[in-house]
Amino acid sequence: MFKRYRRLRKNYAIRSMVRETVLNEEDFVYPLFIVEGNNIKKEIKSLPGNFHWSVDRLDELVEDIVRAGVKGVIIFGIPNYKDDVGSGAYDDEGIVQKAVREIKRIAPDIWVITDVCMCEYTSHGHCGIVIDNSVDNDETLKYIAKIALSHAQSGADMVAPSDMMDGRVGAIRSILDENGYKDVSIMAYSAKYASAFYGPFREAADCCPEFGDRKSYQMDPANSREAMLEIQEDIDEGADIVMIKPALPYLDIIKMTRDKFDNPIAAYSVSGEFAMIKAAAALGVIDEKAIVLESLTSIKRAGADIIITYHAIDVARWIRRD
Asked: Which residues bind Zn(2+) (predicted)?
């Protein structure tokens, strides 16, 4: 006698009762791109439905996020001024710092994460201090730590170093603790791959490197065991949450991380993943809602606790309506 597994697929009621993986609006973090200036809400061409926002328009965006039920945001700042050391990244009146204060004023309960990196702020577009045409790891740590401290002082709940310098988590944890910010947590971009899926983001954040590429500090897409070493090191240095980026092409890395570590896992469903779905939907060859829900479910099923996605607001609304 064969087993009749279809009995538990008979209709929506039973399928929903036995469903192993369920998306909730609490799963999502929404990326924000904040620019200098006033009265700016400008759609990002490479990320349809996402916008560059000026700080004075954030009330409109934050209210939309709250209504959707999304609990967290991650902030990326695009400054007007750039220099060799990315000084705008740790300026108390920098774009991220102003955005954090304004979001916390509008909605104090939103969990505010800040991207801690230098590529948006440096004239050369690299994620650290360049010496002799190479990003100097140890010199960069000093600046990354300063940026994280500045974000904490502005009211960030969590800082997220994305530079992939060795030792950055420990440097950040030390400077935060020394300055009385022991409760500010760290979400480390622990396995951030040198991926071709970042193209739309680099347009949105204006952060393409002026020379070379980022392969000397971001991870080789061919490697998985190396990711486990990076994640272990970040946990040992004090990371509260570890992140895998991108998400869909690296579901195996998410699963390996879930099997090996107990820390919460974030997965960043990046701009290229989003843009491909939007492009296919615009051509009418896929059902956008169905594809998005299936894709994000696969990320959670692989082991992610938190999903950073440009679909966050839409998905949270779909979940509530369904």
From this structure: 117, 119, 127
CA angle 51, 35, 318 (to 5 degrees): 25
119 known ligand binder: yes
The CATH number linked to 47 is 3.20.20.70
Query: Annotated catalytic residue: which of 71, 245, 278, 300?
Result: 245
Q: How far is residue 34's CA from residue 87's CA, in Å, rounded to a whole number? A: 17
Return the DSSP state at 57: G
Known binding residue 208? Answer is: no
pLDDT tens-digit map of 160-173: 999 999 999 999 99
- The reply to whether 42 belongs to the active site is no
Q: Which of 71, 98, 146, 192 is catalytic?
A: 192
Residue 127 annotated as part of some ligand binding site: yes
- The question of whether 192 is a catalytic residue gets the answer yes
Length of the chain: 322
Instruction: Write down the residue that tokens 């879930």 correspond to.
Output: 258
Tally of structural domains, the chain? 1
Which structural domain, as residue segments, surrounds residue 56? 24-321
Supply 320's token pair: 């509530």
- pTM comes to 0.95
